[in-house]
C-alpha cells in the first residue's frame, strides 16, 4: 500500500503542475465581480459563437425575412448591451422565425429571440428585459462555463483550436460539437437569477423601466399555465419559478425605487406596430 506521505507528496506535485494552467484561466468577471475559471480566450469565445450562429439560425427556422424587424430588435438589444461591463464583445441580436417561445445566447454575444416569444409580449420594455437577460448570460459567461461543464474543458479548448485553424473539415466538426453542446446546455437557477439581475441593471441603464422584467416573467409564467406545452423547450434551458419573479421585484424595489410598475411604457406603440409587422411576416412565411 502506498504511504500517506508519498500520496500527499504526489498530490502536492500535481497541484504545483496544475497551478499555472488554473491560474492562467482564472479571472475576475467585470459583470459579476466573481472569479471564474475560463479556459479559452475572449477571441476564441467570439469565434465559437460566430461560427456556430448560422447553424443555430437554421435550427430555429432561419431569420425572419424583414429588415425593419431585424433592425428594431438589434436597436433594442444594442441599447442594453452597450451598458454591459464586458468590453470588446460584438453583440448581435437576431429575430428567428420559430413559433416556439425561446431566446438564447451563444458565447461571444450572438443572441437570438424567436418570433414565438416576441409575439407574446405587449411592450418594448419586455423585449429589453429578455435581451438584457440574454446579454447577462454573455456578460457573466454562463454559456462558456456551461459548455466547459457540458462538453469538457479539453473538448472546448480543442474546438477553439480547430476553429482557429485552416482545416475546414475540422472546423465543421467543431461547429457541430458547439451546436450539440449548446442544445444540451442547461442554466442553473443561480445563473437565471444572476442573468435576471444583470438584465434589470442593463435595461435600467439603457433608460427602460425595470418593471418590464417582472412583466416578462409574469407573461411567461401565465403562458406556462395556459399553454403548458408551448414553453417546455424554454423552461428546459431557462428554469422559471415564482421565486424568480419575487427576486426581480426585490431587486427593483431595493435598487430602482424611482420606477413605478404602473407607469405605461412610452415605447409601447412602437413595439405593437413592430409586432403587427411580425405577425404579417410570419403569416407570409407560413404560406410559402
Layout of helices and strands:
Blueprint: H1 4-25, E1 26-28, E2 35-37, H2 42-59, H3 67-81, E3 92-96, E4 103-105, E5 110-114, H4 115-118, H5 124-139, H6 142-151, H7 153-164, H8 168-183, H9 189-205, H10 211-226, H11 232-237, H12 242-255, H13 268-287
Parallel strand pairs: 3-5
Antiparallel strand pairs: 1-2, 4-5
Helix pairs in contact: 2-7, 2-8, 3-5, 5-9, 5-10, 6-7, 6-8, 7-8, 9-12, 10-12
Describe it for me?
The protein is mainly alpha-helical. The chain has one domain. The chain has helices spanning 4-25, 42-59, 67-81, 115-118, 124-139, 142-151, 153-164, 168-183, 189-205, 211-226, 232-237, 242-255, 268-287, and strands at 26-28, 35-37, 92-96, 103-105, 110-114. Strand 1 (26-28) and strand 2 (35-37) form a beta hairpin.
Give the rounded overall mean pLDDT.
86
Outline the low-pLDDT stretches.
1-24
Instruction: Tell me roughly what share of residues is in helical segments.
Output: 55-70%
| Largest sheet features | 3 strands, mixed
Strand content: 5-15%
**Spatial order of strands in the largest sheet:** 3-5-4
> Helix/strand/pairing class, anyone?
mainly alpha
Radius of gyration: 21 Å
Order of helices and strands: HEEHHEEEHHHHHHHHHH
Task: Provide a count of the helices.
Answer: 13
How many discrete domains?
Answer: 1
Topology, number of strands: 5
Describe the global form: globular
Please give the alpha-carbon distance between the first and last residues.
73 Å
Amino acid at each position: 500500500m502506498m504511504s500517506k506521505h508519498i500520496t500527499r507528496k504526489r498530490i502536492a506535485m500535481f497541484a504545483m503542475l496544475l497551478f499555472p494552467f488554473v491560474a492562467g484561466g482564472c479571472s475576475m468577471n467585470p459583470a459579476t465581480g466573481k472569479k471564474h475559471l475560463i479556459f479559452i480566450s475572449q477571441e476564441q469565445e467570439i469565434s465559437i459563437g460566430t461560427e456556430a450562429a448560422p447553424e443555430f439560425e437554421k435550427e430555429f427556422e432561419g431569420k425572419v425575412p424583414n429588415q425593419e424587424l431585424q433592425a428594431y430588435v438589434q436597436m433594442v438589444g444594442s441599447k442594453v448591451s452597450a451598458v454591459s461591463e464586458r468590453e470588446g464583445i460584438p453583440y448581435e441580436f437576431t429575430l428567428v422565425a420559430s413559433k416556439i417561445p425561446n431566446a438564447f445566447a451563444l458565447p461571444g454575444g450572438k443572441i437570438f429571440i424567436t418570433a414565438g416569444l416576441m409575439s407574446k409580449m405587449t411592450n418594448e420594455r419586455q423585449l429589453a428585459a429578455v435581451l438584457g437577460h440574454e446579454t447577462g448570460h454573455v456578460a457573466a459567461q454562463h454559456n462558456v462555463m456551461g459548455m466547459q461543464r457540458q462538453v469538457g474543458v479539453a473538448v472546448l479548448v480543442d474546438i477553439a483550436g480547430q476553429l482557429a485553424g485552416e482545416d475546414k473539415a475540422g472546423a465543421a466538426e467543431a461547429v457541430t460539437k458547439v451546436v450539440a453542446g449548446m442544445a444540451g446546455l442547461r442554466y442553473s437557477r443561480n445563473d437565471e437569477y444572476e442573468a435576471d439581475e444583470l438584465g434589470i441593471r442593463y435595461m435600467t441603464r439603457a433608460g427602460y423601466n425595470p418593471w418590464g422584467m417582472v412583466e416578462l416573467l409574469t407573461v411567461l409564467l401565465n403562458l406556462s399555465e395556459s399553454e403548458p406545452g408551448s414553453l417546455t423547450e424554454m423552461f428546459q434551458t431557462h428554469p422559471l419559478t415564482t421565486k424568480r419573479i419575487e427576486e426581480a421585484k426585490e431587486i427593483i424595489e431595493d435598487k430602482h425605487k424611482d420606477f413605478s410598475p404602473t407607469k405605461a411604457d412610452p415605447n409601447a406603440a412602437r413595439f405593437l406596430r413592430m409586432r403587427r409587422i411580425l405577425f404579417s411576416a410570419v403569416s407570409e412565411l407560413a404560406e410559402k
